[in-house]
Every structure is written in structure tokens, then in C-alpha cells.
Amino acid sequence: MAAESENLTLVQAVRDGLHTEMERDDDVVVMGEDVGKNGGVFRATEGLHDEFGDNRVVDTPLAESGIIGTAIGMAAYGMRPVPEIQFLGFIYPGFDQIVSHAARLRTRSRGQYTCPMVIRAPYGGGIRAPEHHSESSEAMFAHQPGLKVVIPSTPYDTKGLLTSAIRSPDPVVFLEPKLIYRAFREEVPTESYEVPIGEAAVRREGTDISVYTWGAMTRPTLEAAESLADEGIDAEVVDLRTVSPLDEETIVESFEKTGRAAVVHEAPKTGGLGAEIAATLQEEALLYQEAPVERITGFDTPFPLYALEDYYLPEPARIEDGIRDAVEF
């Protein structure tokens, strides 16, 4: 008998993943600004307060450091908190708690304590939001040992990766691409399941170039790849899904097949994860390389307001140009 499923958007898959794990494990607690009675600014926690009550769906003050710090204490004593930060651009007051305490708790206590918590945050641009609402600063967290950083791009992966993150014994930063929260639907099993953290997914197989991406950039990258196929360029698209730890095996295996690479991300170019991927390819597969690695990214500026937002974000035409540059080198 086929497993039951629902046709969900990405944000609905977040809510379904939270609900499934809260039903399964009484230690799972959701907390954050407006996550309770209001259901969250994007309604990702809608209805959870009615079902699980004040003790497990906690409306907090507007204090990111306090939200994260409280969750760390709860995690150290055996609970599995899932704090939400309304937008990734609001997380910086809690950054000290994350890198100084959550990421180090296992090492600092020599394994006596772990920190099983998931920090959820919508990230990225494209929704015409004000300042501080559109950051894509995943590289900051990927640089910190002790943290896992997960970024889904489909509803199915969202629920499965969130389940894996909640069950992880160590802290996970779970970044949700809000641009595609409601962009499309996909069949998602109603039962509990896990998508492994640290495993990339090849979304499109190809032979001419490997294009690495994640989050909201996966869809325009696939669109660009399909368009270039009409020109005879066969691009392989690899959705990393987890940016820390990187799935180096899949990254290198794809590059050894194609000999060319491009990386697409909406964060600024300098210090972005595209540089880490390029360095990995140099270290592990230099003799396969036929062209410089192209980085198709946001610009090294603060994220712009509405008039320039579409220009800032990599879109299919700019992605196509970058892929052509690598293939035609």
C-alpha cells in the first residue's frame, strides 16, 4: 500500500515537520517571537499552539540573544528546543550565544553535555522586505566548527531535513529560503522520515559543467540549465542541501565528470561559500579542471531595497552567462 502524502508548499512542510516531531517527542519545544497564538510571521507554526499549548509553543520577548541563550540551557538539560528567529538578519544579537556556547558545548564539557537544538530562520531576498530582512549570511555559520548548516530547496527535503536536524545531538542552523516558501507544491509523506544531513542531491545530470547551488537559487539554476540545453550545453545541477558539512564526495565526483564548474549563491561573492567549493575542487580534483570556476553571486554590497533587488539576485539570464563563460573558456 502506498504511503499517504500531502501536496505541500515549503512553509507548510516546515510546519508539518515540526508537528510530526512534537507528536513523537515531548521534549521538542518551539519558541520565538509570535510563534504561538499568531502562528509566526510566515505562519510556519500555525495551529501548533492550539494543539500543544503554552508549555511547548512559547511566545518569547523580542530578544534574540535571550531566545537562543534560553534554548541552549534547555538543550543542555535534555530538551530539544527549536527556536525561531523571524528573519536571518535579526540573528546577530544572538550570534555570540550560537558561536560561543551552542557550537562549543560538547567540546567545552568534554562530551558531558550536548546541545540538541535547531535554530530556524527564514533567509534570503526577493520578497520586497525592508532592511535586515533579506540577508544570506550562511557562510558565517558554516565557518564555525560545531554547527551544522542546512538549507532545503524543496518541500520534501524541508520536512526530512528538519526531522534529521531535530533528532541531531548537536546544534543545527536551519535556513529556510522564504522566496520559495509558497512558490510551488510537492508531495510530502504524512509519516515521519529523515533526509540525511550532509548529502547533496543531483537535481539535473549533465556532462559539460557542474553547477553547485542551494536554497532559493536552485530553481533559477535549473531554469538556466534547461535553457542552455537548447544551445547544446549539458549542465549538471547539484543542490548542496547542507552547506556545513559539505558533501565533498558528490561535489568532486560531479566535477571529475564534467571538468568545469560554477557556483550560484545569493550571498555576496567575497568570503562566500563559492570560494570554499572552488578551493575544494582545486585540492581534490585539480587535474580534472579545464576552466576557472565561475562564481555567480550577489554583489559585495548591503542587500538593496526594492528597485535593485531583482538586479542583485542571480537570475536565469545571469546564471546562463556565467555557465557559458566557463564552458567556452
Automatic annotation (TrEMBL):
CDD domains in the cross-refs: TPP_PYR_E1-PDHc-beta_like
This protein's record includes keyword Oxidoreductase: yes
Domain Transketolase-like pyrimidine-binding: residue ranges: 8-183
Cofactor annotation: thiamine diphosphate
Gene3D superfamilies xref list: 3.40.50.920, 3.40.50.970
PANTHER family per the UniProt record, alphabetical: PYRUVATE DEHYDROGENASE E1 COMPONENT BETA SUBUNIT (PTHR43257), PYRUVATE DEHYDROGENASE E1 COMPONENT SUBUNIT BETA (PTHR43257:SF2)
Name assigned to this protein: Alpha-ketoacid dehydrogenase subunit beta
Organism: Natrinema pallidum
